[in-house]
Amino acid sequence: MSEEFKLPSYREQSPKVAERFRKMYSRPVKMEIKGLSKTFQTSKGTTTALKGIDFSIYHREFVSVIGPSGCGKSTLIRMLAGLDFPTGGEALLEGKPVTGPGSDRGMVFQGYTLFPWLTVKKNVMFGLELSGKSGSAVESEARSWINIVGLSGFEDSYPSQLSGGMKQRVAIARALANNPRILFMDEPFGALDAQTRSQMQAYLLQIWKNVDVTIMFVTHDLDEAIYLSDRILVLKANPGEVNEVIEVPVPRPRTPEQFISPEFLATRKRLEELIHPKGAQEEKELPVVRMVGAEDEVE
Ligand SMILES: Nc1ncnc2c1ncn2[C@@H]1O[C@H](COP(=O)(O)OP(=O)(O)OP(=O)(O)O)[C@@H](O)[C@H]1O
After folding, report:
1. What is the Å distance from ligand 1's center to 127 Cα?
2. I need a labelling partner for 104 at 20 to 30 A (CA). Which of 6, 30, 66, 92 fits?
3. How far from the centroid of its chain's Cα atoms is residue 149's Cα?
4. Separation between Cα atoms, residue 269 and residue 275, nearest integer Å
């Protein structure tokens, strides 16, 4: 008889992984979130989108935010980016309160936010020119960012000539060209097909490794969060609060083969327990629409 396969605890870390976290926690705090809350007044009453979020993101960390729909993931990232304002608490970037948008924070969203009338190079140069730089230095800087995201040769293409994954790489290059202290990514790969999405995840890990940047990444995809992150901030809904912070025990460098490693599976199981707790959703029988004979029934 074979022994029952037992997953390790998602808290079990190899010495190498524990050492990586020790190093990470010894780095300076990049962003400190202190008691951050947000309520919205609507015609139906008050919605508490976020309540008392406390969390610190360390320099060069990759953090993902995950949670059920409506738990406040986008609201959180928008407030940290300075695009919306908290109704309580505050966020500090390198010790300074966030009071509005700024070039020290980059954003990449799910929708392709490139200017369709500008070439790849001009899209990447846009932020640099806004900051007052000009001339050949800007152009060569833009070229080097285009190279970093693997799009050399496409400098003069227009967004309409690129695939979805390529457009998102341009959006990443444009955000990084401003040299942000932190990059916020809100479901950046949500609109991509599964194959392009996994390629983009691998690209993003390479870019993160090669560029001095800290990343906060919102996703619905549990595997994506585990594959990319150092830690996962799990939120719960109504009101949006921190449910758990998971230190991902999967060693780096990450590879797709790790998706079936015991550490990966244990982390996935824990995330599923947190996000889809048993009994939270009653299994509903869907109505049967009989369009075939009983002998054609399937299970
Ligand atoms: N501008 C707004 N006015 C009123 N309520 C809002 C507004 N923006 C967000 N909310 C509410 O705040 C809560 C959190 O919304 P948010 O979009 O941040 O959640 P989310 O976790 O990103 O959701 P999803 O996973 O579905 O994208 C929801 O209940 C939402 O209805």
Report:
1. 29
2. 66
3. 17
4. 10
Q: Which mean pLDDT values do the consecutive 10-residue runs of the chain (299 residues) have?
A: 73 94 97 97 91 97 96 95 95 96 90 89 89 83 91 95 92 92 94 90 93 95 97 95 97 95 95 84 67 72
- Angle between the 164-177 and 120-130 helix axes, to the nearest 10 degrees? 20
Kindly report, residue by residue over 104-151, the tens digit of the pLDDT: 999 998 876 899 999 999 999 988 888 777 788 899 999 999 998 889
> Rounded to 10 degrees, what is the CA torsion of 110, 115, 118, 120?
-20
Structure tokens at 68: 């059920």
CB 236 within 8 A of CB 72: no
CA of 87 to the centre of ligand 1 (A): 15
**Which atom from ligand 1 is nearest to the alpha carbon of 240?**
14
So where are the chain's domains? 114-179
Q: What is the pTM of this model?
A: 0.91
Q: Give me the residue label for tokens 């959703």.
A: 281
- CB-based contacts of 149, cutoff 8 Å, min separation 6: 169, 170, 172, 173, 176, 203, 207
Ligand 1 site residues (CB inside 6 A) read 40, 42, 47, 49, 67, 69-75
Q: H-helix or E-strand containing 234?
A: strand 231-236
Nearest CA to ligand 1 atom 24: 69
CA distance 217 to 73: 10
Cα–Cα separations (whole angstroms), residue 86 to 51, 288, 299: 10, 47, 50
- ipTM, 2 decimals? 0.97
Cα of 85 from ligand 1 centre, angstroms: 14
Handedness of CA 248, 249, 253, 259 (dihedral sign): negative
Distance 293 CA to ligand 1 centre (A): 45
